[in-house]
Every structure is written in C-alpha cells, then in structure tokens.
C-alpha cells in the first residue's frame, strides 16, 4: 500500500498552480509559464503513480494509495481517496488532457484567468476520479461545473452565453437527482448499521436494499451521469457547447468531463446497485445502441466540424455504455480502455480543428472548407491518423477497445452487439465523408498553411499514444482487468466472467 | 524458421519506417530503391522459408512474436503461422509486389507525391503479409483492414480529382460493410469455441452446431465479398481504377482482392461443416463471374475492362471454394496474379505511351510501336482466354473440372463465362493493338514510345510466368504439385467424383472450344468496328444499374432519415422535450418573473431549494 499523499498532491497541485497563475496575471506570459510547469509536474506525478500502482494490495482489494480523514462526522463529510486500475487510467487521462490543452490550444485573451480555470478544473476532476467517498465524489463532480461554465461563457464563440447556459442547466439538473440519491443512500446505510452518517464507498456498497429501491437509486444516479457523458437522449447540450467553447474548453468537455459521466456510471451506479442490474440493463443497452446509431446518423448530416465530433462522441459514449452495462468482463475492460482512448482521440480532433480555425477564423462549416490536403499535407496526415483511430482501424488504439466491447457483449447480449457492430460502418461513413469534403479537392486559399513546428509537437503525444495503445495495450489492460474483475464479482457474485 | 518469418513480415515495415523518417532528405531514386529492395529481400526470405518448410518434418510452424491482447478468456497473440498455404501466399505476394515496385519506379517518375506512393506501397505489402501469415483471425483482421486503408489512400492518390476521392471512400465503405461479416464471424466463433487461433478453431470445430457453422460461413462470405469484390459488394472495384495503374495491378488485381478467397480457404475446416454455406459460396462465385464478364464486354475504358475481368476471375475462385476445390482456387489465384498483373502493367505501359489516355476508342494499331509491351500483352491475353498451354488454361480447367463434378448448372454458367472472357479480352486486344491508328490526336501526331527497362522487365518476367505457371499443377502430376503441397492445410475436403482420363480430355476440349468461340466472335465483330451500341449494351455499360439501385434503396433513404433526424428529431423532439420539461418545472415551481432573468445563480438557487425540500422529506421518511 502506497501513501495517499501522492493522490492528495495530484488533487492539490493544480489548484495551487491556479492560485499562482492568478497572482502573476499582470505580468505577460508568466501565468502561462506557471500553468505549463504545473501541468508538466502533474503529468510526471500521474506517470509515477501509474508505475507505482500495485493492484494486489493485501486484503483482496485493487485499491491502492488509500487514506481517509473524517472532516465533520455528524454530516458524514470526509476526505477519502484511493485509486484502483480504473481510476488510474482516468488520472493519467486528466493530466494528459490539461497538459496537451495548454500546449496545443493556448488562448491569450485574459490568459491568467483562463489557465487558472483550466487548472482548477483539473483539480476538481482529479478529485472526482480519486474520491473514495460518495458525498466527496458528488462535491467534486459538482464543482467541475463552475470552471467549465466560465470557460465556455467567457472565452467561447458567438453563441457562448446560450451554450454555457444549456450546459449548466443539463448537468446541474442531472446532479440534483444524484444528490438526492446520494443522501438517500447515506441515510439508508445509517438506518441499517447505526453510528455516524457515512458516505464511505466501501461502507455504502454493503448497504442492503430491495431491487425496487436499487432500481430507483440507479435511475437517479444514471440521469446525472447520462447528462454528463452524454448518453442519448440527454446529449443535446453537447453539440452547441463543443462548437462554441474555446478549443481548450471543447477538449476538456469532450475528452475529460464526459468521462466523469461514464466513470460515475461504472463506479457508482453499476457497482453500488447490483440488484438494479436485471431491471435496468435492457433499457440502458437500448439507449446505448440507439445512441450509436443516432449519433452516427446526426454526425453524417451536421454542417459543422466540431458538432460532428460532438455527435461522434455520442456514438462513442454509446459503445462505452454498452461495454459497462453488459456485465461481461471483456466488454467492461474495453469500455474503460475506450474512455481513455476516446479522450486521447478527441484531444487530437479538437487540437487539429483548433489549428484550422486559427488559420481561417469563424465557425468550422464543412461546406466552406475544401482542399486542405494540398497546402497542408502534414495537418491532413495527422487528421487521418486521429480519424482512423476513431473509426477503429486495427493497429491503432480505438480498435482494441471497440473490439473488446463488441466481442465481450456479443457473448452475453448478441442482438445489441450486432446493432452496435453496424456502428463500425457508420463511423467510417461520416468521418470519411467529412474528410473528403474538407481535405480532398483543390484550394488556393492563401490562409491555408501547414502545421507549425510547435503545433506538430503538440500532436506528437497524441499520435504516440494512439499507436502505442493500438500495438501494445497489454500494460494498460493488465492494470484495468483486476479492478474490473472486482466490480463484476461484486455485481454478480455468481460470477459472470465471460 | 522463426527468424525467417519475422524478417519476411518486418522488412516491408522497416522500408516504410525508413522512408517515413528519411524520405524528405532522400532522392526519388533512393526512395524507390529502398522500398523495392525491402520487398525484394522479403521475397528472398520467403523462398528460403519455403525451402526450409519443404525439408522440415513439421509442416505447421507457429512463431510467437508477443502477446497483443489478453483479457479474461480472450487471448490474442501477435503470432505467425507458417504452413504450406501461408508460404504459397507470401511467395506470390512478395514476388509480384517486388516486380510492381520496380515498375512503379518508372511509372510514377515525376509524380507530385512520389515518396508517399512508395510509403503506402510498402505499408500495403506489410499489411498483406500480416493478413496471410497471421496465426489467428484477429491478426488477420489487422492485415485485412491495413490493406483496406492502403487501398483507400492509393485509390484517392490524385485527391484533388473528385472522382478519385469518391472512389477511395466508396472502396473503404464497401469493405467496411464486409468487415461486419468478418467481425460477426469472429464473435460467434469466440462465443462458441473461446478461441480465435486458427489451429485451435480447427481442432474444436466439431463443437459448432450446424446452425452456428452456417452463420459463421455466411458471415465470412460477407467479409469475402467486400474484400474480393463479389456480389453484392463488387462495384467498388471498377471505381478503384482511379488509382495509379501499378496500384490497380498490385492491389486491385493480384493480391488484396484475393484476400477474401484466402480467408475462405484458410477457414476450410469450418466451411466443411456447412454444406448450405458452401453452396451459397459457389452460387455467389458463379453469378459474380458471369455478371462481371457480361459487364466487361461493354466497357470503353481499358482499365475498367480489366477491373471487371478481375471481379469475374475472382468469381471463379470463389466458385471453386464453394465446390470444395480449394487447391484449384489457390492455383487460379496464383496463375491469375501472374497474367492479370501482366495485363494491368501492360495496359499501364500503353496508357503511359499515350500520355494518360485510357479510352479504347482512341488506341488501335499499337502493336508496331510497342515492341515489348505488345508480345507480353499477347501472352497475357492468351493466358486469360484459356488457350493452351498458357497458365490460365490449366488453372481455369482445374476449377471447371471440379465444378463439373459438384454441380452441372454452375459448370454451364462457368463455361458461358469462359466464352465471354475470351470475347471481351479479344475485343480489348483488337481495339488496343490492331485496327487503325486512332491515337494521333492524343499524342499530337507523334509516335508512341516504348517504356523504359524498369517497366518492361517486370512485363517480361510476368509473361514468362504466365506461360509456365500451369506447371504448378498439371492434371497428370500427383505428387510434386501445388495441390499436393497444400492438401494438409485444408482439413476435410468433400470428395468430388474423380473424372476419368477420357472425361478430363472431354472437359478440356470444351474449355478450348469456349475460348475459341469467344476469340473468333470478338475478331469478327471488332476487326472493323470501334464502338457499337448493338454489342455494347447501355445496361451492361452501366454495370446492370447496380449503383443506381443501391442509391435508391439504401443511399437516399438513409440520407433522408439522417436529415430528418438532424432537422426535426434533434431540435424539436428531443431538445424540445427536455426544454419543455424544464420550462414546465420552472413555471410550476415559481411564478416569479425573476426566474426568467437567465442568470445561472437563479437556476442554481431554485434547484438547491427544491432539493432541500426533497431531502427533508426523504430524511423524515427514512429516519
């Protein structure tokens, strides 16, 4: 067992960096330097923690780095952190996303405040992924709203006010259900076991309840997570928000905050309410495959490149939900891996679209773009790699996760998996069509230039991760598997381990 | 053997990486030499592996590289299987690839993206070798998709031309539809057998019930129709002719498009479990062979004729697989690779000499201007037409003899297709090399010139192979033949009544007669014609209206549905419902005008207040 200090440092460091960035905001470039330094150290910390992580902690738990401090006993308020293989991946993703967003999508307008919000968002996201206490998770989960709201509302495009409001209302309303669910669960636990009110994850997961109660609580949790992820049909905030947010904001929303939804679904909705599974599974699986087909269909007709990525994310979230809900170990490992891969891939998409936006300005309407490959071959090549990873080309990262989800869920829920398999065709359909319209053809627009050296370097980590996790995913799979196994054993004691 | 296998596979990848990193600093010639050298070495090692396998006691060698994916019961190694089938495939794939790389050094000279072309080509060979050498279905799928994406890049090589960009996309998407079949086959096999490694699948195939086996076979067939351009997914291949001609020769004639046939032959022990599945395969193959041959009779573009001819010839291979004549399918695959690569490269030489002209009506009388292209093309033409003693005669004869024993109606369809084959190829030959000179306008009055040696040398080598290729498997040789070499990999092959020597002579006579009928018909019609609405039916020229039908039945409804989703369902139904709900809740909760102010904190306050009420209620109830 490693010290929980590591995790506390991961949570606190970005907040400190934010404070530093605000303090020096009047001096040009200093805020940015502090932010990049913080993000780099954070990345180093995340990698260190990933290497230290030991999935075989004595006591048959895959949680490492655990530590708990009760802050206010009567209210059940506690600071409790721990990390298992699933949160490990999310921690690395969080550090990676903020790092690449800072390096690749610098926004010089009121930079001190901008990077401060970005770092604060990182702190809260880290807190959510590392919280080992349901109330603590809820608080961090809720707090992420604030920086995200301000990033969209103050640095966004023409319709930023509407986008920010829509984003806020959806996720906030969803959280209301979550809040009620969390409190109910805490009180129910106290009612059964007596003692102080507690929201400790390990304690609450032992709460006994009828399958009816479990189902209602699952629904309350799932609404919040579905709005965040977003899972169909609670997705309609995402296209406008992704399109209107500044590049770094789109990256944070799609690559990171979305994963709070799917992570929450797996860690808190599925794992805490095993008895709800048989009731909710058909509904959730159906929502998942509808999301895949619907997201793909809308991605094929949307006129805006950023909205296309948003709808494509709805489809990808469908795959993740499918993997989480089937109860197959292989599929669930695939879903966790896809959370990470989708994060990296959307970072790639939004960075590249951001580069293009910087060159020609204005909204990224597909019909106004053509012939980019001629004057910008490297940009086109990088876009191709990211696109092919998203389509699920074997050898790149997207394939491994998608394949695991499909083959795993086919064994338990063949018909849903079959529909999802057609999603593989649809992804190729809308992405290749968009690629043809934007990159193929001819253009003599002098504004179109190839990527600069700096931009190219910002994409290197993305491409490296896409190739590395496609060719050699074993180290990551081996860290996820035991933790997923644990979730599954808890959910289905009889052991559905297919 | 392990080292040889690894080298065969990795050399083209090394070539790719080397050019990727150093390309911008290398001269054109150096890039071409590195890429060609890598593939040539890979061929040399394939020969060495072949010799090693012949002299070793075990004909199945598994080479483990590393553990790729491993979760729960799913175990997918990156491992190679060296057996007679995979060696045969890698020999002809690397051999033909090396020749076409050499040819490309001349053909692509001076093109804008010369380096990128060789990058793609090397990556293609690596993917193709992954496909044929893999020891499990998932790794085969890696190569399967890899060749698909290389094909996409190379078809849309001239990306500023709209038709090329669309053709590349079309090829990728048709292949993806087929991929669904391949994925489903893998999922089903894994659900039943818990393994995806070929040898384990074959060992456990007995546990598959007949329904599952049939579904697996049909799913594999769907995958094969996509990659190998068979009905119903064949019509991407003619569009793929938008790519440079060496690509058409390598990818869209000799190697990639035969991957579907390879997959079916590789899975023959599973095919053996489903008679219905195999019958479907045979029918699809025969129909494709016939339909594509009819279309080839009416095409005006030299490459389009050859493209439909490829579809038709692969149809023969698929028919052979369905009939259980796996060795015949591979025999025709190899022979076809020789003569079709020859024909494509020859047509490339013709196109090159005419400054890019591909229209048959603007050719004619080229025989005297192209002293090497003409005789080599002549060999290719006779070979594909089925004239003895060229390779095509033996290979096609082998297929038809087996089909005769399997099903008489399919055999008749095969013979009719053979007549059509000889007919459309002779038409192509006459229009290109005989008759009157019609190219002066294209060449601005100049004489066409023969291509340089890098382009003609591969033609000569392929012509020799097209003459001698039949020796791989002569009907009266039973021990040191291709069929005997491959036999151990097929598992159970259903017995087709062996033909008596007399019957074999009779069938061979029918084949020769079919070839001669087609040949004579073409000469009598096209000797003094250039185009003719009577013999080039519009219905055939427009590919049986296949694209229009797909567009009407699938394309437009899908687009309309998506458009409806984007215009109506998303903004009105889904967003409308959520917004309406929010508005309703807001109105009922508070009547105040203040709440309409749009400030986030007001919404937040309202929500928190509402929450507090609910929580108090719940606490009261639970506590």
In short:
The complex is a heterodimer of chains A (498) and B (623). Chain A has helices spanning 5-23, 30-52, 85-104, 111-130, 134-143, 145-155, 160-193, 201-204, 211-228, 237-244, 247-272, 277-301, 305-325, 329-360, 377-391, 397-412, 414-439, 453-471, 474-491; strands at 64-72, 77-83.
Distance between the termini of chain A: 30 Å
Average of pLDDT of chain B:
88
Low-confidence stretches of chain A: 494-498
Structural class of chain B: mainly alpha
Major sheet summary line of chain B? 2 strands, antiparallel
DSSP E strands of chain A, number: 2
Overall geometry of chain B comes to globular
In angstroms, what separates the terminal alpha carbons of chain B?
74 Å
**Which bin fits the share of residues in helices of chain A?**
over 70%
Mean pLDDT of chain A: 90
Arrangement of strands in the largest sheet of chain B: 1-2
Number of H/I helices of chain A: 19
**Hey, roughly how much beta strand do the residues of chain B contain?**
under 5%
Spatial order of the strands in the main sheet of chain A?
1-2
